[in-house]
Design goal:
Blueprint (H helix, E strand, L loop, with lengths): L1 H16 L3 H26 L22 H12 L2 E6 L2 E6 L2 H10 L11 H6 L13 H13 L3 H6 L1 H20 L6 H18 L7 H13 L4 H4 L5 H9 L1 H24 L11 H10 L11 H15 L1 H16 L1 H15 L7 H4 L3 H13 L9 E2 L4 E3 L2 E3 L4 E4 L1 H4 L18 H4 L1
Parallel strand pairs: 2-6
Antiparallel strand pairs: 1-2, 3-6, 4-5
Helix pairs in contact: 8-9, 9-15, 9-16, 10-13, 16-19
């Protein structure tokens, strides 16, 4: 019987050898996939992962985010703690929602979590990760960051752009005064965006900002960068691609990128034109083109037009809506509290006197105004979540395991409303920052 069984199994094995090679490959890869998934599941059972809300197959926790994800995440963190894991389709994310856990991530484990998620949209708009914000932690990132810090954000360079800032603020105030004199409604959001865009435009391009088209373009870029495509969410092959095709996301992505790339290339070409009048002051493109021209081979970072475009996009994304959002929220809080307005007016009049306008030097002598801005940032952060980070090695926070290639986001909106850190967290109380200013 044993001999017959052996012959039978041997004949089956021999018949397997006559299968087509492609079928052998499929069987091998399928078996390998099953083994790896089984081992991953076994390892996961041994690990101490952060708690997670119940998930639905395929979509994970997507259904629990709702129309206001930052508030939904805050409610979930009240149930599952300051370290919580979520599955958004096949994307695993850990949400940090307390001061202690955020400090542990951003200070103690900074180098272990300093990469960025690499989505299709990020890769496209960063010119294959040539920028600062989304470039992986590497020698390139360190070098390009050093160039930007020395050339754009040094005290000397910042002070050199002071006349531009003062001129644009003057135009901003004049525009509001004209609207007020004729009784017209003032859209502060629109005016503040025009102000910040005007400053960044002149610093980067060396010319005035005109029209709403560029702001709309940047808003579209932000929307695409801040979202995942369906193909990145869904684990089922080709399903996400079909969703993206029907939704028009890929078409929109290509259209917006081509518009942005065309605009940047047009401005670079203008700067390279021999007939261009020499400016009184070099703008950012002038500086980057000079670095590119004077490079000596071999060098660690070669500045090309793609590098310049990627850096420009970072400047516009970080500079336009961020400042305008804070300005609008601060004005909204002031209009809700007449006492605040009176105190700010009194402080400004005492400092400025009869000079008629506030200068940048005066701002350093306005502590009450500083408290208002700090409280505004606490209640209304620039974004509910910090830019996502991706871990590059193993570490633990409060006993929970963080593994390489894990996406982690810090929820600053929840931290600003944490009752263990702030008294009456939902109230606008600027005096809470009084000690820090004296």
């Amino acid at each position: 019987m044993f001999f017959l069984s052996f012959l039978n199994s041997f004949s089956i094995s021999m018949s397997f050898l006559h299968f087509p090679p492609w079928l052998h490959l499929i069987i091998f890869l399928s078996s390998l996939f099953i083994i790896l998934k089984w081992k991953a599941a076994a390892n996961k059972r041994k690990c101490n992962f952060p708690p997670s809300p119940p998930k639905i197959p395929i979509i994970g926790n997507l259904h629990q985010l709702g129309k206001l994800p930052h508030k939904s995440l805050w409610r979930l963190s009240q149930l599952y703690g300051p370290i919580m894991s979520l599955s958004l389709g096949r994307i695993e994310i850990i949400i940090i929602s307390s001061v202690e856990t955020a400090r542990a991530l951003l200070k103690i484990h900074d180098l272990q979590s300093c990469n960025r998620p690499q989505t299709h949209a990020i890769k496209k708009f960063s010119y294959n990760f040539l920028d600062i914000a989304f470039s992986p932690y590497s020698d390139y990132w360190r070098e390009i960051r050093k160039i930007c810090m020395l050339e754009f954000f040094s005290m000397k360079r910042v002070l050199s752009y002071k006349p531009i800032r003062e001129q644009e603020v003057g135009l901003f105030i004049e525009s509001i005064s004209q609207s007020a004199s004729c009784g017209a409604v003032v859209d502060l959001s629109e005016k503040s965006i025009a102000l910040t865009a005007g400053v960044i435009f002149r610093i980067a391009f060396g010319k005035q900002f005109e029209g709403d088209g560029f702001h709309e373009l940047i808003s579209e870029v932000e929307a695409l960068l801040g979202s995942y495509s369906a193909s990145e969410f869904f684990p089922v092959p080709f399903v996400g691609e079909v969703f993206d095709w029907f939704s028009g996301r890929e078409t929109r992505l290509e259209r917006v990128f081509n518009e942005m790339n065309g605009l940047f290339q047009e401005v670079i070409d203008e700067h390279l034109c021999p007939q261009r009048p020499k400016p009184e002051q070099d703008d950012i493109i002038d500086v980057l083109l000079a670095i590119s021209k004077n490079q000596v081979e071999p060098c660690s970072v070669v500045i090309t037009h793609e590098n310049i475009k990627a850096i420009l996009l970072n400047l516009f994304l970080a500079g336009i809506e961020t400042s305008s959002i804070i300005l609008v929220w601060a004005m909204a809080e002031l209009t809700r509290n007449s006492t605040l307005i009176k105190k700010v007016h009194e402080e400004i009049r005492n400092q400025v006197g009869n000079r008629g306008k506030v200068t940048e030097i005066d701002i350093e002598e306005l502590p009450y105004l500083k408290m208002i801005m700090q409280e505004t940032l606490r209640l209304h952060p620039l974004a509910p979540l910090l830019v996502p980070r991706k871990t590059i090695s193993n570490f633990k926070i409060e006993g929970y395991d963080f593994y390489p290639k894990t996406t982690v986001q810090v929820k600053v909106w929840a931290i600003g409303r944490d009752p263990t850190c702030w008294k009456d967290p939902e109230e606008f109380l600027q005096e809470r920052f009084c000690r820090e200013l004296h």
